[in-house]
Specification:
single chain; alpha/beta; Rossmann fold; 7-stranded mixed β-sheet
């Protein structure tokens, strides 16, 4: 039952992000520390209110045995990494519409947060123009993002922070 409550929170965050970015029919998401893909469940729920093509990249640190059913028309990519920062190191450019830090942010060291922040500044030769969302169940996780990303945090909601 708890996973459905989390899926609903992700649904709310993704719904806001899709609206904020003006994404009408297609969204690309990288979920950093996606775990059992509960965030994907929330994202797929948006299809109940609008037609939406989904490209979802899950960066996973632990290979969970449980995974939700995948919609046949969605593009799903799972990257097994030992650190979230490794995902960014391997990218040539940032091209996803939304970067989601589910619960993983509370487990990152300040050095890794700083490295990821630098990637958002320099991968495309300019600041990243999309949205970075994170789940802030743990208050210290949101504070860690504020320290790592500084003034790039533009707002904080009950269910997440927005940069």
């Amino acid at each position: 039952m708890l996973k459905y409550a989390y899926a609903y929170e992700y649904y709310l965050m993704y719904n806001k992000a899709v609206k904020d970015l003006g994404l009408l029919s297609r969204v690309s998401v990288a979920s950093l520390g996606c775990g059992a893909m509960v965030g994907y469940m929330g994202l797929v729920s948006l299809k109940d209110i609008r037609p939406l093509e989904i490209s979802y990249t899950g960066v996973v640190l632990v290979d969970w045995s449980y995974k939700p059913a995948i919609c046949a028309e969605d593009q799903i990519f799972l990257n097994m990494k030992t650190k979230i920062g490794d995902y960014f190191r391997d990218l040539d450019e940032l091209k996803e519409d939304i970067y989601m830090f589910p619960k993983s942010i509370s487990e990152l060291s300040m050095e890794e947060v700083a490295y990821i922040s630098d990637c958002f500044r320099c991968k495309n030769g300019q600041d990243y123009g999309g949205k970075i969302y994170g789940h802030d169940d743990v208050r210290q996780a949101a504070e860690k993002m504020k320290k790592g990303f500084g003034s790039r945090v533009t707002g904080q909601k009950r269910i997440g922070f927005i940069m």
